Amino acid sequence: MKKQLITVLAIIMVSALFITGAALATNQEKLSVGTTGNAAQNANATAEPSARAVDGGKKNIVIIGTGGTIAGTGTPGKVMGYKPGVLDVEAIIEGVQGIDALANITGEQMLSIASDDITAEDWLALAKRINELSQSAAIDGFVITHGTDTLEETAYFLTLTVKTDKPIVLVGAARPKTALSADGPLNLYQAVAVAASDDAAGKGVLAVFAGEIFTAREVSKTSTFKTACFGSGDLGSIGYVFDDQVFFHQQSIKPHTTQTPFDISALEHLAKVGIAYFHADADVNMLEYMINNNDGLVIACAGNGGYSSAWIEKTTQTLDIPIVRSSRIANGIVMEDPDVAPTISANNLNPQKARILLQLALSETKDINEIAKYFEEY
Q1: Residue 31 confidence (pLDDT) above 60
Q2: d(Cα 144, Cα 79) in Å, to the nearest integer?
Q3: Whole-prediction pTM value?
Q4: 318-373 tens-digit pLDDT
Q5: Average pLDDT over residues 219-240
Q6: pLDDT confidence of residue 53
């Protein structure tokens, strides 16, 4: 009888080990994400098994690397004189103590560049890749490591074009990994904490920097050297992160992600839109050149959308392309002005974000009145 009992217990233990192993293998297969070196290759990436352990009690977060200062290296201890985009996403993740305790992490490298070199084609590839990966029930959210110079532009493009309510968080660093007090590891840790938070779902694309959470529409770079180098002007951040604790206090009412009409699934290029910077005694010939060589134009105006009488004369005569009036000023709103019709007000979008919205609007319509509605809504 004793021998029979031992035999039965042995069979039960072997069966349990087999079932557990099969379940872990299944979970690992679900979490696999491809790793490629550039955006073009990434569009056709095949899944590769992740080397990271799977914990079924944690969220599954994909970190997509694009380069930037957060992936930069240089002279040990120095802040300047580094090369951005040197480290791949796995090397960045491995340098963040405790990040695996926040979520099941997988990494994918799409780009390895300074964000000044990012193109519209890169934006399209990134948005399409997120749309593809977000279809998987095994993925709960995304973090994108990015250079700070154009992070706000990528964030706004994504919040208008990705079609998922899953959290998407952009993050970067003001100092390279090799600098004293490098800020990238903590920023990335907190970005993953936000992406793994239930409260982040449905809030559109976010940016996390120096313990603050910003919406993609409102965030902008505010300093060339401070580690707290992002802000949202008059409107402020929407929350905070302390260690792994996430606190949301408000959210944007502007439509985003699944609420926008912009379908980029078949787009390979965006409309050509330039930005003309107005200043005292600005040459009207420069404005004319910009009008003649673009599908649309944004003017970075003085004050509340103002510019000289010579520029007013030129813009009021222009009916061939839409012209959007933004402002050089960091805060406030540009109002509609009948004296400069048929130009379009950018509302409170800065010039670089107004350009993105105009590019996407032109993929839907060439009608100036319809484009103006996009600027009222988004």
Answers
A1: no
A2: 22
A3: 0.87
A4: 888 999 999 999 999 999 999 898 999 999 999 999 999 999 999 999 999 999 99
A5: 97
A6: 58
Per-residue confidence (pLDDT) for residue 55, from 0 to 100:
75
Q: Which residue's entry shows tokens 């300074």?
A: 114
**For the stretch 260-280, what's the b/e string if a residue is b when 16 or more beta carbons lie within 10 angstroms of its beta carbon?**
bebebeebeebbebbbbebee
- Written in H, E and C, the secondary structure of the chain is CHHHHHHHHHHHHHHHHHHHHHHHHHHHHHHCCCCCCCHHHHCCCCCCCCCCCCCCCCCEEEEEEEECHHHCECCCECCCCCECCCCCHHHHHHCCCCHHHCCEEEEEEEEEECHHHCCHHHHHHHHHHHHHHCCCCCCCEEEEECCCCCHHHHHHHHHHHCCCCCCEEEECCCCCCCECCCCHHHHHHHHHHHHCCHHHCCCCEEEEECCEEEECCCCEECCCCCCCCEECHHHCCCEEEECCEEEECCCCCCCCHHHCCCCCCCCCCCCCEEEEECCCCCCHHHHHHHHHCCCEEEEEEECCCECCHHHHHHHHHCCCCCEEEEECCCCCCECCCHHHCCCEECECCCHHHHHHHHHHHHCCCCCHHHHHHHHHHC
Percent of the chain with pLDDT over 90: 83
Short-list 151, 119, 327, 340, CA closest to 231? 151
At residue 43, the pLDDT reads: 41
Which of 369, 366, 360, 364 lies closest to 341, judged by CA? 369
Catalytic residue among 36, 66, 69, 150: 69
Q: Is 69 a known active-site residue?
A: yes
C-alpha 63/C-alpha 59 separation (Å) is: 13
